[in-house]
Amino acid sequence: MNASKAPSPSTINEGEIEKFSAVAAEWWDPRGPMAPLHKLNPARLSYIRDAVCAHFGRDPGQMRPLKGLKALDVGCGAGLVTESLARMGADVTGLDASADAIAAARVHAEESGLVVTYHADSVENLSATGAQFDLITALEVVEHVADVDLFIAGLSTLLAPGGLLVFSTPNRTPQSYVSVIFAAEKVLKWVPEGTHDWKAFLTPDEMAQKLDQAGLTVTDLKGLNYSVLNRTFAVTNDTSINYIGSARHKT
Asked: By CB neighbour count within 10 A (0-12 exposed, 13-18 middle, 19+ buried), where does 37 fall?
């Protein structure tokens, strides 16, 4: 009698994919279920631009400061960040495990007149192809994967020598529970209830340790915080709720 073959490890969390596939058609609606990402996007893009320019010696005041860089947006959804990277000049690929989100991304990119390559696949499958990128963004995605270590190992493999990884995710603190779970989901209804699992959030120390195990070192870490007064997100030094950072291969 032959023993059954054990399933291969995967980063794909089918339950999480179903949640985001269900809102794919509304992804680009700034008042829809992805409204928090629309609010968050300007601060994230500002950080990405400045981090990339500092790392590669570019001028952040240029119209297309990412020109000539090969970029990968992991967990791209329908392309909020992906399209912005393309507008900043990058040769960009968007990767997401949701086929519905990728379909919406392709339609929106075509309607916007942007050339973007999209793949509905996993990090581990793409990394197995030998593809590598100068810039990888993994924003608000690590908290939704099934195997964090496998996910980060895939990012490390996909990052070209001398490249830069930019990541962002909620911290696991009482403050983040109040802000991300209680306020955003239950009170303000910014996102559907159940979008996030607070227990799946990583602290900055946990993230740094997992990156280190994958051969990456954190080079910068900042907070992403919402101002009720200004109704906008900003990059700050307070990492207690959300944080954004960059990492590179160890030398």
From this structure: buried
User: Worst-scoring range by mean pLDDT, 68-72, 195-199, 212-216?
Assistant: 195-199
pLDDT (tens digit, 9 = 90+) per residue, 101-151? 999 999 999 999 999 999 999 999 999 999 999 999 999 999 999 999 999
Query: What does the pLDDT look like over 158-213, one tens digit per residue?
Result: 999 999 999 999 999 988 878 776 566 564 566 666 677 888 899 999 999 999 99
In the chain the domains, ranked by start, together with CATH numbers, are: 14-171+202-249 (3.40.50.150)
Q: Which of 108, 55, 245, 220 is nearest to 169 (CA)?
A: 245
| Residue 156 near residue 214 (C-beta atoms within 8 A) | yes
* Distance (Å, whole) CA 125 – CA 241: 31
pTM of the model: 0.91
Spell out the residues 6+ positions from residue 49 whose beta carbon is closer than 8 angstroms to its own.
60, 65, 66, 88
> Cα torsion at 192, 195, 198, 201 (round to 10°)?
-140
Sheet holding 91-96, edge to edge: 117-120, 91-96, 70-74, 133-139, 159-170, 242-249, 216-227, 232-236
Structure tokens at 125: 């499958």
- What is d(CA 201, CA 222) in angstroms, rounded to the nearest whole number? 16
151 burial class (0-12, 13-18, 19+ CB within 10 angstroms)?
Answer: buried
- Gap between the Cα atoms of 49 and 58, Å rounded: 9
